[in-house]
């Protein structure tokens, strides 16, 4: 049972760490955009903005990966452990 709990908490901790890194990356992009906006604020100079017709994101979205997709260690623990859960 301890192996199962350790495995679950390790997987959740890994997912939280990955999401924190993604959030930090987004926060950095927002800060950079805000700095550019602040630079343009209050300017009396004409500003021409060029924009593509397409949204500047990826063509495909990132697939969701389950917390349990990282490996089969939990299934091995469940099958070989003191209880037989399938």
What would you note in describing this structure?
The chain is elongated and about 65 Å long. It has helices spanning 2-40, 73-80. The chain is mainly α and 86 residues long. It is 55% helix and 0% strand. The chain has a domain at 1-16 and 72-86. It has two helices and no strands.
Structural class: mainly alpha
Helix content: 40-55%
The mean pLDDT is: 78
Q: What shape does the CA trace take?
A: elongated
For the biggest sheet, the summary is:
none
CA-CA gap between termini: 15 Å
Strand content: under 5%
Question: Helix tally?
Answer: 2
Q: How many DSSP E strands?
A: 0
Layout: helices, strands, pairs:
Blueprint: H1 2-40, H2 73-80
Helix pairs in contact: 1-2
Structure keywords:
86 residues, mainly alpha, 2 helices, elongated
Short description:
The protein is an all-alpha fold.
